[in-house]
Amino acid sequence: MAPPDVEFSAPLRLPSVIMSVKNVDTEKILSEQNAGARGNALGDALATLAPAVAAAAEAEPQGALANAVEVSRMLRDGKLAEVPTAFKFPEQMRATIAHDDFCDDKDIPVIDLTPVWAEDGAGMEKLVDDIARACETSGFFHVVGHQVPDRCVKQMQAHGRKLFELPLDRKLQGSFAAGSTAQRRGYSCTPKTVTPSPALIWQEGFTVLGGKTGQVDVESYAEKIWPDDVEQSKDFSQVYQEYAAHSMRLSLVLKDLLIKSLKVDPAHFEQYFESPMQVVHLTYYPPSPSPLEVMGLNPHYDMGFLTLIAQDDVPGLQLLGKDGNWFSVRPVPGAFCFNVADSLEALSNGRFRSNLHRVLVNKERPRLSISTFLAPDFNKSVDPAPELVDDEHPRVYRPFTFGEYMSTIRGAHLDHITNCGHLLDLVRIDASTK
Predict the structure, then answer these.
(1) Strand pairing of 367-375 and 306-311?
(2) Could you tell me which Pfam families the record lists for this protein (predicted)?
(3) How far apart are alpha carbons 297 and 315 in whole angstroms?
């Protein structure tokens, strides 16, 4: 069963030359919600800047969209004196620590899944206890012993880099249709629609969707990006499909372990995974000349059930500690980084913790990550298992479907998300005063 489309606004991409000129109110252009108003504001800016636009067109024949790679290249070439305003985050939201500011006493645990494959009873008992402890504290842990071939991950990373190194116009051939209301798929640059943000984020991405089989809709996008290179298009698709299948298998294994760690009837959880949605997302974070003014991804909570991230060796992922301070997650070679998402927190009746996290960039090295998001069925009411609700542990969240959470609830509270608010707070049973 194909996952349903979720309606989002199409992102607005401004020509980089417009963003670079100080007397143009780029925030006003970006804030226009109506397409006609956007067009009028953009047209006024273009008319005012006709000479500059003409010069930019001559210097950049492809035309530079509001894309972090293009902006970064222009900055390195001396065409821009600073990061364009549209990418700058408000002072109060900017990071005050670097992307590699590690804190050993806050680092997330490493959990080995070897007992799963060895059918080690004593090892399994410790494993599920370790998972429960990690999910109750930071909501994050590294996964090793996962049986996803290292070759598969490295091939995916290599093809991801090859994709993002292409000229912008080639990559845009594989983007979702301009003006489409369907969920973002294919190539995207500086997206502002998945996680609402007060500024454009410093990244590029490539997203495809799938379901329980681990098969994803990648071929049509690859064919558009490499229309004259059938072999490259085929190789990219095959590698993506293999990775998606392995990551889906691992996601479902972790789902079973999470159920064991909650000590509840598995049948209650299984109903949410008859037709789950899988999202496999490549993200490329270019270097930035002013990394603390921008963000690779602004602070947010994941909305699905669980997330798995294959990172390269460049740090950037940061979590908010219980003490209210951010800390960097140290990449572990060969590991996946797991985190609890909102639906799992609700299904655990608040026992497991969906945590605020963000991504920072650096001046020297690009960063590549591969994220797999597992989401429950769209139309099933998210209800905790009966064993998790009693007089001492009353129900924390009202019933909602994941489809409602992703569209209606999210769509009505974009400002709340932009300001780092947790969407789950709006469905708390005691949320009537919020």
Answers:
(1) antiparallel
(2) 2OG-FeII_Oxy, DIOX_N
(3) 13
Q: Exposure string (b/e) for 85-107, b if CB count within 10 Å is 16 or more? A: bbbbbeeebebeeebeeeeeebb
The predicted-structure confidence for 28-62, as pLDDT tens digits, reads as follows 544 544 434 444 444 444 334 333 333 333 333 23
Region class of 263: left (phi > 0), else alpha (psi between -120 and 50), else beta: left
Q: What pLDDT, in 10s, does the model give residues 379-404?
A: 999 999 999 999 999 999 999 999 89
Interior angle at CA 227, CA 225 and CA 232, nearest 5 = 75
- Residue 184 has a pLDDT of 62
Query: How many residues appear in the chain?
Result: 434
Residue 306 has pLDDT above 90, yes or no: yes
Rounded-to-integer distance, Cα 411 and Cα 150, Å = 39
Euclidean distance between the first and final Cα of the chain, in Å? 37
CATH 3.40.50.1000 applies to domain 88-433: no
The bridge status of strand 140-144 relative to strand 110-112 is parallel
- How do the domains of the chain map onto residue ranges? 88-433
Q: What does pTM read for this prediction?
A: 0.81
- Phi and psi, residue 67, nearest 5°: -130, 130
Q: In the chain, what is the greatest distance between 2 CA atoms, to the nearest angstrom? A: 73
Q: Of all residues in the chain, what percent carry a pLDDT higher than 70?
A: 76
